[in-house]
Design a protein that fits this description.
four-stranded antiparallel β-sheet; globular; alpha/beta; about 35% helix; six-stranded mixed β-sheet; 8 helices
Length: about 300
Amino acid sequence: MTRRQLLALFAPPEGAGLARIRVPALVAKGEPSSLEATVDGKPARVELLKGPQDDLLILLVLDFSGDISYIEFARSGLVEAFKELPPHAWVTVLRAQDGLRVLEDPTGAAESLTATVNAYTGGGKAGLLDTVEEAAQLGDRLLVKTTARVAVLYCTDSSIYNYREDFTNPVINSSDSRDLSRRFPDQLVREKIQKLTGALLARETPVWIVHIHYRVDSINEAYQRGLQQLAEATGGEAAICRGLTEIPAAIGRAFRRIREHWSVFLQLPPGKSRNLSVALNAPDCEMSFRQRFSVKR
């Protein structure tokens, strides 16, 4: 099944528009009962709350192209995570190379998901930066059709040097100490992350990222910081694994955090602006939540 076919299955109803937003939230203590919300400082009605006991669809995007030893540890972590899926959770598996493509239709069957992950060989160019906006868009199309919670999870070993686009900033004049390309070698990476962050603020689907291969050069470090920025902007989280043994635990934690996340349906007050600022508050409840959204005109 292609991404286009999956979108067609969950096409938005005719006349659907953005009268509400869904705010992802992570609860550290208590439950968000008696929840109050504001959008741009104006009271916003909480229409619906969906939490850990409610239906969940995870869009698992695989983006492996490097060292097989890292990939094997990732497979091990994914297999264990599949075994812990509750009955109300489904996973669809996609690959990121050469555009998003569905490898496994939504299922909660651990055996089927395990077979799909084991059959995926990866290789080729990294795909996360090229597909993350599409993945969030796909999640949004599913959100329009259902009240289930939806989240994107990328498992990647991507290096910034392995993209089709060249994100290095070569020195233009090596003899000129004032040459900005010498002072900001990660400029192109930061510009790409900034552009993608702006695009993801117009989406409602939270994105989690587990990067299984930490790299220490300055441009890859900027890239890895950028991945954390992308995930946090959507209300998700990113983990950068610094060793093989960290990989299964990081994947397991990402699945648990996704299972535990809440989805808060807010009715937008009249006179909303293009850039929305959201605040949530519930007595005796400690939680973090996505605070910024961008509404396309």
